[in-house]
Amino acid sequence: MIIKGKVWKFKDNIDTDVIIPARYLNTTDPRELALHCMEDYDSEFVKKINQGDIIVAGKNFGCGSSREHAPIALKTAGVSCVIAQSFARIFFRNAINIGLPIFESVEAVDRSVQGNIFEIDTEQGVIKNLSKNETYKTNLLPEFIQKIISGGGLKEYVKKELKRRKINV
To answer: Mean pLDDT for each consecutive 10-residue tract of the chain (169 residues)?
Structure first.
């Protein structure tokens, strides 16, 4: 899969309360969550991003509480993927569970600036910074994780697998 979008840069330790403030957790509606995505960091964020844009962040992205609301808000707001130096483990798993691609690349984080255009080849583990004509390596996600992400998340992947195997639940 190829992902292409504009880079939005964020610092280290962006926690789940910054991604989706706790005051909005009284809903599970993805569209409502998306309206408030990153608003405590940048109140205009959801008005400025376009479908397919990419978040690039420092270390420990998604730290804090274990709620799935954070990756859901990002994905529904139009974020096509997140690239960071590192992720909080629970955020990493939640992102995969809901089908949000995430990649680790210190070089991509260090060499990019907000507004760069990135193109990611998820099957090769390559990030191209089209604005700088540079290429960076990223973690190559295992094939089964790539299938979960491309299938729309764990729930949809399991449904398809059960149907493929003709297992009724």
So the answer is: 97 96 92 96 95 98 91 98 97 96 97 98 95 95 92 92 83
